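$ run holo --ligand "S-adenosylmethionine" --emit C-alpha coordinates
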Amino acid sequence: MATVVELREKCVAEIDTYGRLGYFNDRPWLRRAFFAVPREDYTPTRVWVPKREEDGRYPVLDRREQPETWLRAVYSPRLALITQIADGAVRIEDGPTVSSVFTSSLSCPAVVVDMLHYLNPAPGERVLEIGTGAGYSAALTAERVGPGNLTTVEVQHELADLARASLQRAGYDIHVHAADGEQGWEAGAPYDRLISTAGVRQVPAAWLRQVKAGGLIITPIATPMNRDALMWLRPDGEGGARGALITDLSFMKLTSQREAGPWREYGWPRLPDYEVTVTPDGEQRIRTHG
Ligand SMILES: C[S@@+](CC[C@H](N)C(=O)[O-])C[C@H]1O[C@@H](n2cnc3c(N)ncnc32)[C@H](O)[C@@H]1O
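-- output --
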Protein backbone atom coordinates (compact mmCIF):
# COMPACT_ATOMS: atom_id res chain seq x y z
CA MET A 1 0.00 0.00 0.00
CA ALA A 2 1.40 3.41 -0.99
CA THR A 3 2.10 5.70 1.95
CA VAL A 4 0.50 9.11 2.25
CA VAL A 5 3.90 10.75 1.72
CA GLU A 6 4.38 8.84 -1.54
CA LEU A 7 0.89 9.74 -2.75
CA ARG A 8 1.42 13.42 -1.91
CA GLU A 9 4.77 13.45 -3.74
CA LYS A 10 3.21 11.76 -6.77
CA CYS A 11 0.39 14.32 -6.77
CA VAL A 12 2.90 17.19 -6.67
CA ALA A 13 4.99 15.63 -9.44
CA GLU A 14 1.92 15.37 -11.65
CA ILE A 15 0.75 18.94 -10.97
CA ASP A 16 4.29 20.01 -11.88
CA THR A 17 3.60 18.77 -15.42
CA TYR A 18 0.40 20.85 -15.85
CA GLY A 19 0.27 24.13 -17.73
CA ARG A 20 3.27 25.56 -19.48
CA LEU A 21 5.49 25.52 -16.39
CA GLY A 22 3.58 23.53 -13.77
CA TYR A 23 1.27 25.14 -11.26
CA PHE A 24 3.86 25.17 -8.46
CA ASN A 25 6.32 26.97 -10.73
CA ASP A 26 8.00 29.93 -8.97
CA ARG A 27 5.73 29.48 -5.94
CA PRO A 28 7.99 27.57 -3.52
CA TRP A 29 5.74 28.62 -0.61
CA LEU A 30 2.84 26.77 -2.26
CA ARG A 31 4.84 23.58 -2.68
CA ARG A 32 5.89 23.77 0.99
CA ALA A 33 2.29 24.38 2.05
CA PHE A 34 1.07 21.43 -0.02
CA PHE A 35 3.52 19.15 1.74
CA ALA A 36 2.72 20.66 5.16
CA VAL A 37 -1.08 20.29 5.03
CA PRO A 38 -2.47 16.74 5.16
CA ARG A 39 -5.39 16.89 2.72
CA GLU A 40 -6.75 13.69 4.26
CA ASP A 41 -7.36 15.58 7.53
CA TYR A 42 -9.91 17.77 5.73
CA THR A 43 -11.58 14.97 3.79
CA PRO A 44 -14.67 13.42 5.36
CA THR A 45 -14.71 9.65 5.96
CA ARG A 46 -17.38 9.32 3.27
CA VAL A 47 -17.42 11.29 0.03
CA TRP A 48 -19.14 10.96 -3.33
CA VAL A 49 -16.91 10.50 -6.36
CA PRO A 50 -18.15 12.71 -9.24
CA LYS A 51 -17.85 9.97 -11.88
CA ARG A 52 -21.04 8.07 -12.63
CA GLU A 53 -20.89 4.29 -12.47
CA GLU A 54 -22.59 2.08 -15.05
CA ASP A 55 -25.89 2.33 -13.19
CA GLY A 56 -25.75 6.13 -13.57
CA ARG A 57 -25.14 6.80 -9.88
CA TYR A 58 -22.28 8.61 -8.18
CA PRO A 59 -20.53 6.11 -5.89
CA VAL A 60 -19.66 6.70 -2.24
CA LEU A 61 -16.09 6.13 -1.13
CA ASP A 62 -15.78 5.15 2.54
CA ARG A 63 -12.39 5.44 4.21
CA ARG A 64 -13.17 2.60 6.62
CA GLU A 65 -14.16 0.18 3.87
CA GLN A 66 -11.59 1.12 1.18
CA PRO A 67 -8.74 2.97 2.93
CA GLU A 68 -6.27 2.78 0.04
CA THR A 69 -8.77 3.76 -2.69
CA TRP A 70 -9.99 6.61 -0.48
CA LEU A 71 -6.44 7.90 0.08
CA ARG A 72 -5.59 7.62 -3.61
CA ALA A 73 -8.72 9.65 -4.38
CA VAL A 74 -7.68 12.30 -1.83
CA TYR A 75 -4.39 12.77 -3.72
CA SER A 76 -5.72 12.44 -7.27
CA PRO A 77 -4.73 15.75 -8.87
CA ARG A 78 -7.78 16.03 -11.13
CA LEU A 79 -10.45 14.56 -8.86
CA ALA A 80 -12.83 16.73 -6.82
CA LEU A 81 -14.53 14.95 -3.92
CA ILE A 82 -18.16 15.77 -3.30
CA THR A 83 -19.05 16.44 0.32
CA GLN A 84 -22.58 17.78 -0.02
CA ILE A 85 -25.41 17.29 -2.52
CA ALA A 86 -28.58 19.41 -2.82
CA ASP A 87 -27.66 21.49 0.24
CA GLY A 88 -27.72 18.34 2.39
CA ALA A 89 -31.09 17.02 1.16
CA VAL A 90 -29.32 13.95 -0.32
CA ARG A 91 -27.69 12.12 2.60
CA ILE A 92 -24.43 10.26 2.19
CA GLU A 93 -25.69 7.56 4.57
CA ASP A 94 -28.15 6.64 1.81
CA GLY A 95 -25.24 5.74 -0.49
CA PRO A 96 -24.75 6.32 -4.22
CA THR A 97 -27.03 8.86 -5.87
CA VAL A 98 -28.10 9.99 -9.32
CA SER A 99 -28.36 13.62 -8.17
CA SER A 100 -25.73 15.91 -9.63
CA VAL A 101 -26.72 18.99 -7.63
CA PHE A 102 -23.30 19.26 -5.99
CA THR A 103 -23.32 22.01 -3.35
CA SER A 104 -19.99 21.47 -1.60
CA SER A 105 -16.79 19.68 -2.46
CA LEU A 106 -13.09 19.52 -1.93
CA SER A 107 -11.99 21.05 -5.21
CA CYS A 108 -9.41 18.90 -6.99
CA PRO A 109 -5.80 19.52 -5.88
CA ALA A 110 -4.73 20.84 -9.28
CA VAL A 111 -7.39 23.55 -9.26
CA VAL A 112 -6.71 24.49 -5.63
CA VAL A 113 -3.01 24.87 -6.44
CA ASP A 114 -3.67 26.78 -9.66
CA MET A 115 -5.96 29.27 -7.91
CA LEU A 116 -3.51 29.82 -5.05
CA HIS A 117 -0.73 30.19 -7.60
CA TYR A 118 -2.56 33.21 -9.00
CA LEU A 119 -3.65 34.54 -5.60
CA ASN A 120 -0.02 34.36 -4.43
CA PRO A 121 -0.42 36.23 -1.12
CA ALA A 122 2.64 37.55 0.71
CA PRO A 123 3.31 36.65 4.33
CA GLY A 124 1.32 38.93 6.64
CA GLU A 125 -1.22 39.97 3.98
CA ARG A 126 -4.88 39.93 4.93
CA VAL A 127 -6.88 37.52 2.79
CA LEU A 128 -10.62 36.87 2.52
CA GLU A 129 -11.69 33.45 1.24
CA ILE A 130 -15.27 32.85 0.12
CA GLY A 131 -16.41 29.20 0.28
CA THR A 132 -14.57 27.49 3.13
CA GLY A 133 -15.95 24.04 2.31
CA ALA A 134 -13.98 21.53 4.36
CA GLY A 135 -11.21 24.04 5.07
CA TYR A 136 -8.40 22.56 2.97
CA SER A 137 -7.63 25.60 0.82
CA ALA A 138 -7.94 27.78 3.93
CA ALA A 139 -5.20 25.72 5.61
CA LEU A 140 -2.90 26.10 2.58
CA THR A 141 -3.49 29.86 2.49
CA ALA A 142 -2.93 30.23 6.24
CA GLU A 143 0.42 28.45 5.87
CA ARG A 144 1.47 31.45 3.79
CA VAL A 145 -0.21 34.49 5.38
CA GLY A 146 0.26 33.43 9.00
CA PRO A 147 -1.89 33.52 12.14
CA GLY A 148 -4.93 35.81 12.23
CA ASN A 149 -4.60 37.01 8.62
CA LEU A 150 -7.10 34.75 6.89
CA THR A 151 -10.85 35.20 7.10
CA THR A 152 -12.99 32.56 5.45
CA VAL A 153 -16.76 32.60 4.94
CA GLU A 154 -18.97 29.56 4.34
CA VAL A 155 -22.71 29.88 3.73
CA GLN A 156 -23.60 26.43 5.12
CA HIS A 157 -23.45 26.59 8.91
CA GLU A 158 -22.73 22.90 9.50
CA LEU A 159 -19.87 22.97 6.96
CA ALA A 160 -18.43 26.09 8.59
CA ASP A 161 -18.57 24.34 11.99
CA LEU A 162 -16.79 21.23 10.66
CA ALA A 163 -14.11 23.29 8.91
CA ARG A 164 -13.56 25.46 11.98
CA ALA A 165 -13.07 22.32 14.10
CA SER A 166 -10.60 20.77 11.60
CA LEU A 167 -8.62 24.02 11.30
CA GLN A 168 -8.49 24.51 15.07
CA ARG A 169 -7.38 20.91 15.59
CA ALA A 170 -4.51 21.59 13.18
CA GLY A 171 -3.56 24.68 15.20
CA TYR A 172 -4.51 27.40 12.69
CA ASP A 173 -5.65 30.85 13.80
CA ILE A 174 -8.19 31.51 11.03
CA HIS A 175 -11.44 33.47 11.32
CA VAL A 176 -14.17 31.12 10.08
CA HIS A 177 -17.63 32.66 9.66
CA ALA A 178 -20.94 31.12 8.65
CA ALA A 179 -22.50 33.77 6.41
CA ASP A 180 -23.34 34.67 2.82
CA GLY A 181 -19.99 35.40 1.23
CA GLU A 182 -21.62 37.52 -1.46
CA GLN A 183 -21.51 40.22 1.23
CA GLY A 184 -17.81 39.53 1.85
CA TRP A 185 -16.93 40.01 5.54
CA GLU A 186 -17.06 43.70 6.31
CA ALA A 187 -15.70 43.49 9.85
CA GLY A 188 -12.31 42.25 8.62
CA ALA A 189 -11.93 44.73 5.72
CA PRO A 190 -9.88 46.02 4.05
CA TYR A 191 -8.24 42.91 2.61
CA ASP A 192 -5.17 42.70 0.42
CA ARG A 193 -6.58 39.78 -1.54
CA LEU A 194 -9.80 37.84 -1.96
CA ILE A 195 -10.22 34.32 -3.32
CA SER A 196 -13.59 32.76 -4.01
CA THR A 197 -13.96 29.01 -4.35
CA ALA A 198 -17.57 29.47 -5.45
CA GLY A 199 -18.22 30.90 -8.91
CA VAL A 200 -19.93 34.20 -9.73
CA ARG A 201 -21.98 35.47 -12.63
CA GLN A 202 -21.72 39.07 -11.45
CA VAL A 203 -18.83 40.24 -9.24
CA PRO A 204 -20.35 41.19 -5.86
CA ALA A 205 -20.07 44.90 -5.08
CA ALA A 206 -19.08 44.11 -1.48
CA TRP A 207 -15.90 42.37 -2.69
CA LEU A 208 -14.88 45.43 -4.69
CA ARG A 209 -15.43 47.66 -1.64
CA GLN A 210 -13.62 45.40 0.81
CA VAL A 211 -10.42 44.75 -1.16
CA LYS A 212 -7.80 47.53 -1.15
CA ALA A 213 -7.09 49.54 -4.29
CA GLY A 214 -4.48 47.61 -6.27
CA GLY A 215 -5.28 44.41 -4.35
CA LEU A 216 -6.32 41.20 -6.07
CA ILE A 217 -9.51 39.18 -6.47
CA ILE A 218 -9.34 35.63 -7.85
CA THR A 219 -12.66 33.99 -8.64
CA PRO A 220 -14.30 31.63 -11.10
CA ILE A 221 -16.85 33.38 -13.33
CA ALA A 222 -19.56 31.70 -15.40
CA THR A 223 -19.16 32.11 -19.18
CA PRO A 224 -21.58 31.53 -22.08
CA MET A 225 -19.20 28.84 -23.39
CA ASN A 226 -20.43 25.99 -21.17
CA ARG A 227 -17.36 26.12 -18.88
CA ASP A 228 -16.45 28.72 -16.23
CA ALA A 229 -13.26 30.78 -16.33
CA LEU A 230 -10.82 31.72 -13.62
CA MET A 231 -10.63 35.51 -13.42
CA TRP A 232 -8.31 38.02 -11.80
CA LEU A 233 -9.40 41.54 -10.94
CA ARG A 234 -7.64 44.53 -9.43
CA PRO A 235 -10.08 46.78 -7.52
CA ASP A 236 -9.57 50.53 -8.00
CA GLY A 237 -10.64 51.55 -4.50
CA GLU A 238 -13.73 53.32 -5.85
CA GLY A 239 -15.94 50.27 -6.31
CA GLY A 240 -14.63 49.37 -9.78
CA ALA A 241 -11.95 46.95 -11.02
CA ARG A 242 -10.05 45.76 -14.08
CA GLY A 243 -8.77 42.29 -14.84
CA ALA A 244 -8.89 39.38 -17.25
CA LEU A 245 -9.78 35.73 -17.65
CA ILE A 246 -6.99 33.24 -17.03
CA THR A 247 -8.09 29.68 -17.78
CA ASP A 248 -11.19 27.52 -18.01
CA LEU A 249 -12.56 25.36 -15.20
CA SER A 250 -15.90 24.37 -13.63
CA PHE A 251 -17.25 25.54 -10.30
CA MET A 252 -20.39 25.49 -8.20
CA LYS A 253 -21.83 29.00 -7.96
CA LEU A 254 -22.45 31.30 -5.03
CA THR A 255 -25.82 30.28 -3.59
CA SER A 256 -27.33 33.65 -4.47
CA GLN A 257 -26.09 33.37 -8.09
CA ARG A 258 -27.15 29.82 -8.90
CA GLU A 259 -29.92 30.97 -11.24
CA ALA A 260 -28.59 32.27 -14.53
CA GLY A 261 -29.96 35.45 -16.09
CA PRO A 262 -29.40 36.51 -19.71
CA TRP A 263 -25.66 36.75 -20.49
CA ARG A 264 -25.93 40.36 -21.63
CA GLU A 265 -26.93 41.29 -18.05
CA TYR A 266 -23.44 40.21 -16.97
CA GLY A 267 -21.72 42.20 -19.69
CA TRP A 268 -20.84 39.34 -22.07
CA PRO A 269 -20.52 39.99 -25.82
CA ARG A 270 -23.26 38.32 -27.87
CA LEU A 271 -22.09 35.33 -29.93
CA PRO A 272 -22.42 37.33 -33.23
CA ASP A 273 -19.84 39.69 -31.72
CA TYR A 274 -17.15 37.03 -32.19
CA GLU A 275 -15.26 37.11 -35.45
CA VAL A 276 -13.83 33.89 -36.90
CA THR A 277 -10.98 33.66 -39.42
CA VAL A 278 -9.39 30.53 -40.85
CA THR A 279 -6.21 30.94 -42.87
CA PRO A 280 -5.39 28.69 -45.89
CA ASP A 281 -2.81 26.88 -43.76
CA GLY A 282 -5.53 25.94 -41.30
CA GLU A 283 -4.95 28.43 -38.53
CA GLN A 284 -8.28 29.26 -36.89
CA ARG A 285 -8.77 32.43 -34.82
CA ILE A 286 -11.78 33.54 -32.85
CA ARG A 287 -11.86 36.98 -31.27
CA THR A 288 -14.22 39.78 -30.41
CA HIS A 289 -14.68 42.55 -32.95
CA GLY A 290 -12.49 45.59 -32.44
C1 LIG B 1 -15.92 24.17 -4.19
S1 LIG B 1 -16.49 24.29 -2.55
C2 LIG B 1 -15.17 24.82 -1.55
C3 LIG B 1 -13.79 24.28 -1.81
C4 LIG B 1 -12.87 24.45 -0.66
N1 LIG B 1 -12.45 25.81 -0.43
C5 LIG B 1 -11.66 23.54 -0.78
O1 LIG B 1 -10.76 23.69 0.01
O2 LIG B 1 -11.63 22.65 -1.62
C6 LIG B 1 -17.44 25.80 -2.63
C7 LIG B 1 -18.05 26.19 -1.30
O3 LIG B 1 -18.63 27.47 -1.45
C8 LIG B 1 -19.72 27.54 -0.56
N2 LIG B 1 -20.59 28.63 -0.94
C9 LIG B 1 -21.51 28.70 -1.94
N3 LIG B 1 -22.14 29.89 -1.92
C10 LIG B 1 -21.59 30.60 -0.91
C11 LIG B 1 -21.83 31.89 -0.39
N4 LIG B 1 -22.79 32.67 -0.90
N5 LIG B 1 -21.10 32.29 0.66
C12 LIG B 1 -20.14 31.50 1.20
N6 LIG B 1 -19.89 30.25 0.76
C13 LIG B 1 -20.60 29.81 -0.29
C14 LIG B 1 -20.38 26.16 -0.71
O4 LIG B 1 -21.22 25.87 0.37
C15 LIG B 1 -19.15 25.27 -0.79
O5 LIG B 1 -18.80 24.77 0.46
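-- notes --
The longest helix spans residues 157-169.
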